[in-house]
């Protein structure tokens, strides 16, 4: 019988995709995925540390695995990803969680097979967290989660050093993957029947800035647009600071790059944006989204916002609320500021008390929900094209898909629509999704 493994993922899409590589790696070692942790011979935890809440959850999770290790001493527990890359964290885990066998950072995923073998043969806890920003490992095995949407990393790391953010410290400097490697991967995905590609990077607009021969993100999009049966191309995340007119024009002229712009603004006050080191003002941000809306008759714009950054006064927060009303985002992902040790913001004076942060978050969410609903209501009566992804969360009679603008549309239908592009009439609108009726049978 094959040995069993599970990869447990915390964090962003980057981590989700890294976990696909970790799963692929385990399968080439002869392991088989199991949903049941108790049956596993190896558990790999891929961690996040962008906010303290994630970290606490992970530490709790790892603590709970002690019981399993006691029952099954041969169990290999490996903990990798962003969290262990922080200074002192590996030691902290070694001391507090002696049942962990392997600690491997974001630069050592490709070494997992060797680390697992060493752990099975017994011996010391393996710690591998030193930074290694040399070559990007290519051709790692990937076990993809779905068969329709695939994630493709286009760059690693981040050079932006927003003052609140831990990512540049744990993911290292920006490194772009060679265009040929990306194109080859996408062509293969097209042949396998994938319909949608999500290009991943912490700041995709910086793609290619580290190349000697100029080839930027817009060039990359142009080179993959409309090729190999891929119907939709998305990307995550783009930074408002260097979202160029060239990029906007390239997307407007493309066939498959979707009209969804996720442009995290983070705050609406110029004072706070400056303290955050974001490199744009509310005015330049608003003119960017105006430019986008002028070019696209139908598009969606979403954002991320942090409330309670150090020094955020009532006036600063009011500026954020005002910006939300002006910008009319389709959706906003809102976060309580979380102090990350080692970042400049952690040492700034005037940290905001938790209750104030929570009040502000509540106000922000209420305003955004109203805006999201009213934007969605305007779609009632329209016909939209969706790519059907599967059953909806609530019923197997109701299918769920997404518009090019990334809105979820649920509609009565059956499984043969999955993976197809179909047209639906929008009948009803909610804050987070739309409800529709299919008007043609799948092509
Ligand atoms: N590279 C992406 C986002 C990475 S993290 C970008 O720049 O847009 C995803 C989101 O988490 C960020 O957009 C930000 O809103 C939030 N975030 C990052 N660090 C945070 C912190 N210390 N506290 C609260 N939210 C944070
Ligand atoms: Fe963090 Fe800023 Fe880099 Fe995004 S761009 S990962 S928020 S430092
Ligand atoms: Fe978290 Fe690392 Fe992503 S810190 S948000 S998993 S890059």
TrEMBL record:
Organism: Formimonas warabiya
Protein name stated in the entry: tRNA-2-methylthio-N(6)-dimethylallyladenosine synthase
Keywords: 4Fe-4S, Cytoplasm, Iron, Iron-sulfur, Metal-binding, S-adenosyl-L-methionine, Transferase, tRNA processing
Domain TRAM, residue spans: 377-440
Main location: cytoplasm
Subcellular location as annotated: Cytoplasm
Domain spans labelled Radical SAM core: 144-374
Cited function: Catalyzes the methylthiolation of N6-(dimethylallyl)adenosine (i(6)A), leading to the formation of 2-methylthio-N6-(dimethylallyl)adenosine (ms(2)i(6)A) at position 37 in tRNAs that read codons beginning with uridine.
Residues binding [4Fe-4S] cluster 2, per UniProt: 158, 162, 165
GO MF term (any one): tRNA-2-methylthio-N(6)-dimethylallyladenosine(37) synthase activity
Enzyme class, UniProt record, top EC level: transferase
Gene this chain is encoded by: miaB
Keyword Iron-sulfur: yes
GO CC terms in record: cytosol
């Amino acid at each position: 019988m094959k040995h069993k493994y599970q990869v447990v993922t915390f964090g962003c899409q980057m981590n989700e995709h890294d976990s696909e590589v970790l799963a692929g790696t385990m399968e080439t070692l002869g392991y088989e995925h199991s949903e049941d942790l108790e049956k596993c011979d190896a558990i790999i935890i891929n961690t996040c540390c962008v906010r303290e809440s994630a970290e606490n959850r992970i530490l709790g999770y790892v603590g709970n695995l002690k019981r399993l290790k006691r029952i099954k001493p041969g169990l290999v527990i490996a903990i990798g990803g962003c969290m262990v890359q922080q200074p002192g964290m590996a030691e902290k885990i070694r001391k507090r969680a002696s049942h962990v066998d392997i600690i491997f950072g974001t630069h050592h995923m490709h070494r997992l097979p060797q680390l697992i073998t060493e752990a099975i043969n017994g011996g010391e806890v393996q710690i591998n967290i030193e930074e290694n920003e040399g070559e990007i490992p290519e051709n790692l095995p990937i076990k993809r989660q779905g068969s329709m949407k695939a994630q493709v990393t286009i760059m690693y790391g981040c050079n932006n050093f927003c003052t609140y953010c831990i990512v540049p410290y744990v993911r290292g400097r920006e490194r772009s993957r060679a265009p040929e490697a990306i194109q080859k991967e996408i062509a293969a995905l097209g042949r396998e029947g994938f319909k949608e590609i999500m290009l991943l990077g912490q700041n995709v607009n910086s793609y290619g800035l580290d190349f000697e021969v100029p080839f930027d993100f817009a060039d990359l999009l142009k080179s993959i647009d409309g090729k190999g049966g891929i119907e939709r191309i998305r990307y995550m995340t783009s930074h408002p600071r260097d979202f160029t007119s060239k990029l906007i024009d390239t997307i407007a002229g493309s066939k498959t790059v979707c009209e969804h712009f996720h442009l995290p603004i983070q705050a609406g006050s110029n004072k706070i944006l400056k303290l955050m080191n974001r490199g744009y003002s509310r005015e330049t941000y608003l003119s960017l989204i105006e430019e986008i809306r002028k070019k696209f008759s139908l598009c969606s714009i979403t954002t991320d916002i942090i409330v309670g950054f150090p020094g955020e006064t009532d006036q600063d927060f009011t500026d954020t609320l005002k910006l939300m009303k002006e910008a009319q985002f389709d959706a906003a992902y809102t976060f309580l500021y979380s102090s990350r040790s080692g970042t400049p913001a952690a040492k700034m004076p005037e940290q905001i008390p938790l209750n104030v942060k929570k009040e502000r978050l509540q106000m922000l969410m209420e305003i955004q929900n109203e805006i999201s609903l009213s934007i969605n209501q305007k779609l009632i009566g329209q016909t939209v094209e969706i790519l059907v992804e599967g059953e909806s969360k609530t019923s197997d009679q109701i299918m769920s898909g997404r518009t090019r603008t990334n809105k979820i549309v649920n509609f009565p239908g059956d499984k043969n629509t999955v993976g197809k592009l179909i047209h639906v009439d929008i009948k009803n609108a909610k804050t987070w999704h739309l409800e529709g009726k299919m008007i043609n049978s799948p092509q």
